[in-house]
Amino acid sequence: AVLTGRVTFGGAVFHRYSKADRDAADKALVSVGIAQLAGRGIDALSGGQFQKMLIARALAVGPEILMLDEPTASVDASSREQIFALLAELNKNMTIILVTHDAAAAAQVHRVACLNNRLVYHGRPAGLANSAAAGMTETPAVYGGTPAALRKHERGKRH
């Protein structure tokens, strides 16, 4: 499943993977800590293993920015901690933007943006409790950079 990340947009149904594709997929599996599961079908993976596989699939293309939607949804507490530790490690070399319904995840990131039909709060996680967003029940969008990074990514600058 990680190899499917290497198929280009509009790729053929019968895409043949190159050695470079296989090497990139293997490297991605190692980087997320599930290389030993390379031969398993996705139906044999736990929730945490499945989420790590999805992250590996995204990493297999060598992105500068990793965008994730609910990376800790439907995983147990142990897997959640492992995924956030993995993301912290990956964030040393790339910008990571993620969306979550888990307000506790805000403590794990550098910057938080809370949205309620508009930007309600943007800043460090520590300031969230004292902001207008504190009583908000809507979904926060949490990410590792600034809004400008969404419009134009500054090459070489990691958020």
Query: Taking all residues together, what is the mean pLDDT?
Result: 80
CATH class of the largest domain: Alpha Beta
Main sheet characteristics: 5 strands, mixed
Backbone shape:
elongated
The value of Rg in angstroms is 17 Å
CATH architecture classification of the largest domain: 3-Layer(aba) Sandwich
Secondary-structure element order, N to C = HHEHEEEEH
Counting DSSP H or I runs of 4 or more residues, the number of helices is 4
CATH superfamily of the largest domain: P-loop containing nucleotide triphosphate hydrolases
Q: In terms of structural class, how would the helical and strand content be classed?
A: alpha+beta
| Contiguous uncertain segments of 5+ residues | 137-154
CATH-derived topology of the largest domain = Rossmann fold
